[in-house]
Amino acid sequence: MKIITKISLIGCLLASSIALAGTQADTGSKKASQECHHGAHSRMGQGADGGERFLNRMTDRLKLTTEQRSSVEAVLQKSKSQMANLKEKIQTNRKALRELKQNGGGDGSQVQVLAQERGNLVAASIIQRSKIRNEIQLVLTDTQREQMKQMREEHKHGHHNKG
After folding, report:
1. Whether 41 contacts 129, CB under 8 Å
2. In this entry, which stretches build a coiled coil (predicted)?
């Protein structure tokens, strides 16, 4: 990747991180994280609440067999600790960026290091979620895969139209 592209990417990540830090600086509650656009997606394999809800929804809507449900549950369980670890690191990074901003911004090198770390963590999270989705896809029938695709499209369009 060219240097200018890396710098642009870092700048965009930093800007979004600072914007997110600013909007949630005074709302550190669980409710605020649930209202975040990515909150529901990031809970896909985490916790009894988020993971169980996701699994129940998949079972109901896709009419998963008992074997399929067990396989999906195993995929989610296998990835649970890694996703929780990534989530914690992202929150720590967000907090560090917020503190840096509140303390006058520091020097550019501190921001650059945190922005680069943030980019790496987000990339790792995207890769991990993609692996989870791919493993789940292997469990589904062709019909169920098509239904899942339609459900994602409906969710995507419905989510953005809420205004």
Report:
1. yes
2. 69-103
- The Cβ of residue 59 has, within 10 Å, a number of other Cβ atoms equal to 16
Give the distance, in angstroms, between the CA of residue 118 and the centroid of all CA atoms in the same chain: 13
Three-class SS of residue 106?
A: coil
pLDDT-based confidence at residue 39 (cuts at 50, 70, 90): very low
Farthest-apart Cα atoms in the chain, separation: 56
Q: What is the pLDDT of residues 104-159, one digit of tens each?
A: 877 778 889 999 999 999 999 999 999 999 999 999 999 999 999 998 888 887 76
> Residue 115 to residues 61, 85, 96, 140: CA-CA distances in angstroms?
39, 18, 10, 38
22: region left, alpha or beta (phi > 0 left; psi from -120 to 50 alpha): alpha
CB 118 within 8 A of CB 97: yes
Distance, in Å, from the CA atom of 68 to the CA atom of 136, rounded to the nearest integer, reads 9
Distances (CA, A) of 102 to 32, 89, 113, 119: 20, 20, 17, 21
